[in-house]
Amino acid sequence: MPSPVPDERPSPPSCGDIVGLLAQRDRRAAFAAVELGATTPREVAEATGLRPAAAAAALHRLTAGGLVALDDQAGAHVVEDAFRRAVAAEVRISGRRTGDGAGAYFRRGRLTAIPGAPEVRARVLAVVAETFTAGETYSEPKVNALCAEWLDDWVSLRRALVDDGLLHRDATGTAYRRA
Fold it and tell me: N or C, which terminus of the chain has less Cβ within 10 Å?
């Protein structure tokens, strides 16, 4: 088997990171202001009543923590998938999902096996599929590397993701996209 390629995407904030970021009142207020449309430190300060320096500091911490992103054209905006990615990472680390039967297949952030029962299999594979960003094209070595992070038998995992319609493979069999 070819050796997998390491993942180069930045890690999402953990659930603990998010709680820590939002534990401070100024950062919660700044996050809410950005969620409601504020795009600059000045707009955040006006919306929250924070001093401009406090608003800028809160935005800086939220950006450094991965909850807010700054764009030269659009300004500050909420990172839409930060919470989803944090929960997916938590499931991966803890191996737990809330009573849906999928948790039994995760240990220390990895799969122990691919479930046979269709409902549980679908839930387990949905967690794995969140590793892939929608709209991004992945080479076969990259897919192999990401699947290898979940299960030693990454070939079977890749096949299961394709068979269950969570990954689409192109006609040449060399590129994949999340469904």
Answer: N
